[in-house]
Design a protein that fits this description.
Elements: H1 23-44, H2 51-58, H3 62-68, H4 72-96, H5 105-118, H6 120-131, H7 137-161, H8 167-188, H9 193-221
Length: about 220
C-alpha cells in the first residue's frame, strides 16, 4: 500500500518564453522543482541528487534553479521541508478527523505514522539522517522542527482525550511513543516493502495496545 503523500504529478513540459514568468508560472516552476528534487533524493540519495540531474528531470535550466536556490543544500532542504509539511498535514488530518468518542484514534495515528516511516520516502529520509554528517545540520534542524510540531499536536490530543493526564505527562508520553514508532519502523525498513506493510497490518493493533498500556499505566500513577 502506498501512502497518498508519495504521489507527485509529473512535471509538465513548458513552452519557452521570453521575459520573466508570471506569478502563476513561477508557482508551477517551484512545485515541479521541489517535487523533482524530492523524487531524485528518494530514488538516488543525496550525493546523486545534483543540480544537473534536477534540471534534466524537471526540464528547466540550471540558471532557473539557481535564481531560486543558491546551492544544492538549500534546494534539497526546501524539498525535504515541503515533503515534511505534507506528511505533517496528513498525520494531523488523521487525528483531527476522528471524533473525541472514537476509541481507534490512537490506532489510526500509529498506523499512519508507521506507513509514512516505512514508505520509500520515509525510509530514504531516515537513512539520510542516520548516515550523513554534520555538514547537513540545517536539514537535520528542519526535520527536528517538523518532528517537534507533530509531537506537540499528538500530545495536545492525548491530553484532551485521556482523562487525568497532564499536559507535561502527555508531552513525555508523546516523545516515548515517537521513540517506539521509530524503533519499530527501523526494523520494518529491513524488510521488503510489501512485507513491512503486512507486518503493520498484522502487528499494528498489538503495537497500539502496547502504547495504550503505557498511557493507561502512566495515568494510573498520576496523582489526582
Amino acid at each position: 500500500m502506498t501512502s497518498d503523500l508519495s504521489h507527485f504529478d509529473e512535471p509538465t513540459e513548458r513552452d519557452p518564453k521570453i521575459g520573466r514568468p508570471s506569478l502563476r508560472e513561477a508557482d508551477v516552476i517551484d512545485v515541479d522543482l521541489l517535487a523533482t528534487t524530492w523524487r531524485l533524493f528518494v530514488d538516488q540519495g543525496y550525493s546523486r541528487t545534483t543540480i544537473e540531474a534536477v534540471a534534466r528531470h524537471a526540464r528547466m535550466s540550471k540558471r532557473t534553479i539557481y535564481q531560486r536556490y543558491s546551492s544544492k543544500d538549500q534546494l534539497v532542504e526546501a524539498a525535504i521541508r515541503d515533503a515534511l509539511e505534507r506528511w505533517r498535514s496528513h498525520v494531523r488530518a488523521s487525528l483531527t478527523n476522528t471524533t473525541s468518542r472514537s476509541e481507534d484514534w490512537l490506532g489510526e495515528f500509529v498506523r499512519r505514522c508507521l506507513e509514512i516511516l516505512v514508505s520509500p520516502e520515509g525510509s530514504a529520509l531516515m537513512g539520510f539522517l542516520l548516515t550523513e554528517d554534520e555538514t547537513f545540520r540545517t536539514i537535520r534542524e528542519t526535520v527536528s522542527a517538523s518532528v517537534r510540531q507533530s509531537v506537540d499536536v499528538f500530545s495536545v490530543l492525548l491530553a484532551q482525550r485521556t482523562p487525568g493526564l497532564s499536559e507535561k505527562m502527555a508531552e513525555d508520553l508523546s516523545l516515548a511513543v515517537l521513540d517506539l514508532l521509530i524503533g519499530f519502523a527501523t526494523r520494518l525498513n529491513a524488510l521488503q516493502p510489501h512485507e513491512a506493510m503486512d507486518e503493520i497490518r498484522t502487528r499494528g493493533s498489538r503495537f497500539t495496545a502496547v502504547i495504550r498500556t503505557l498511557v493507561d499505566r502512566q495515568c494510573a500513577q498520576t496523582p489526582a
